[in-house]
Amino acid sequence: MAKKTAISPGVRLLAQSESGQRHAGRALHRDVAPGISAAILELNLLLREPPAVLADAAPAALTRALGALDRSAAALRTVELSLRPPLLDEVGLGPPLRWLASQESAIVEIPERLPRLPAELEWQMFAAIAALVRRGLRGKRAIFVASTRPLTVVLRGARARAYPASLAAARARLAGQAQVLSRSGEIRIRSRR
Fold it and tell me: Would you say residue 20 has pLDDT above 60?
């Protein structure tokens, strides 16, 4: 009988980090780089215009270039926030979960204030919740807090069961720090602190 090799939590976290970096790289390539390239192209074309035509061509070209840069900046902010929301360190899980819900068109019911957890646990909970909301639930999704002591975040998906791989990844990410429970259409993540 073949012996199963145990994978350490550190190796799992590294794999999840690499997965996040791949996701960010694809988003940068797909959403940010084309806008910057379009702005550079517009400005280079404008630079080649003869002086007599420049005054007429500049406003439209600059408007197109600025539009492309605005879209790229918005996409870059989304990538940045998905990697690690800056508010997480400052105010805890509440605002980043609200942002996540708005990005994913999920219903959100979160109290104004949530208890602070150790910074690493807050980050791990956010990352696990984000992965579950993005890839683990189907249909109409909701995020709400069922309890603040211990902090219990409930994720719901209409007519859905969580994908086993997403659940396993969340459990691995939160091993020893939080409990991940699943039943038909609902996932509960309860901190152990």
Answer: yes
